[in-house]
Amino acid sequence: MEKYEIVEKDIGLGKFAVVTLMRHKHTKDLVAVKYIPRDTTIDERVAREIINHRSLRHPNIIGFKEVALTPTHLAIVMEYAAGGELFNQVCKGKIGEDNARYFFQQLISGVSYCHEMEICHRDLKLENALLDGSPTNRLKICDFGYSKSYLLHSRPHSMIGTPAYIAPEILSGKDYDGKLADVWSCGVMLYTMLVGALPFEDKEDTQNLQKTVKRVMAVQYKFPNEVCVSEEGKDLISRIFVANPAMRLTMKEIKSHPWFLKNLPKELREGAQNIYYNEQNTNSPLQSIEEIMNIINEAITTPAKGLVEK
To answer: For ATP, which residues are the binding ones (predicted)?
Structure first.
């Protein structure tokens, strides 16, 4: 990590990790570095997060750069999104239907690409959608800690994710299609952008997890009278919030819905996708999977060397 210098510590805090803003000493590029302690925290899930993220190169997904070791931590170096979380934008007040559509179009572009690469995210929420801070305010999906690859891993069955965003079939405790569960989470994100509140939480009792779960299972939500949402927008959400995943809209069907197609940015239109995807593929070659796994295994098997400053 000698080639980077610290700009700001703790720009993000997670259950097991901290994120630090750093600058490449030579290129001066800013990067976000996720530090995970070298202890029992590093396991198969961390390896899965890194390998899945490494395989995804798309303008609406935070770019993966490299993995490195410090004496005390495993460091994941990623693209920095200066605009922060989409969650913070929504917290400032309703963002309007056109802005919600713009962000949703990019969200679907990124998630759809993940699914084409046979990866389901499984923790899609406003906190895991970042904005790059550019004039176009491009959305970037992050945090692949719960992701699964259909090529490398078993069919999803774990009850994980954020309760207010997870699909009914996950709560049932049975095996489920991670891609269709992601569609549900995208619907929750869209509703929250349009309304300014989560669809299945009780506004008067937001901490009541049991009540939220019951509402999710019953698909119990409504649009407040004081919030103006177009009929096409409501129709799209009603076809995403379907308890039976087999009857829920697919990514392909979402991308052909009239509400989604309105004011669709030219780079997201059919035919322009390959150029858009290739924007992210002009970076320098990635570390090999073998090299990454060697670093992860060393982090697991070699104890941290005291409380050395990262």
So the answer is: 34
Do residues 42 and 299 lie in contact, with contact meaning Cβ atoms separated by under 8 Å?
Answer: yes
Annotated binding-site ranges for ATP:
34
Q: Which residues pair with 23 in a beta bridge?
A: 5, 30
How many alpha carbons lie under 13 Å from residue 212 in its C-beta half-sphere? 19
Of 106, 61, 110, which Cα lies nearest the Cα of 263? 106
Active site residue 123: yes
The DSSP bridge partners found for residue 30 are 23
10, 39, 43, 123: the catalytic one is: 123
Residue 184 lies in a domain: yes
Alpha helix (H) residue ranges in the chain:
44-54, 86-91, 97-116, 168-171, 178-195, 209-217, 231-240, 251-254, 258-261, 273-278, 289-301
Whether the predicted model's global pTM rises above the 0.90 cut: yes
Give the type of residue at 49. E
CA distance 121 to 65: 19
Q: Are residues 105 and 229 in the same domain?
A: yes
Annotated binding-site residues read: 34
Token pair 């009850």: residue: 159
Q: Please identify, among 28, 47, 81, the residue that sits at the C-terminal boundary of a domain.
A: 81
Domain that holds residue 105: 84-273
Q: What is the pLDDT of residues 171-216, one digit of tens each?
A: 988 789 999 999 999 999 999 999 999 999 987 777 788 899 999 9
Same domain, 69 and 138: no
SS3 of 250, please? coil
Residue 299 located in a structural domain? no
Are 194 and 248 in the same domain?
yes
63, 57 Cβ separation under 8 angstroms: yes
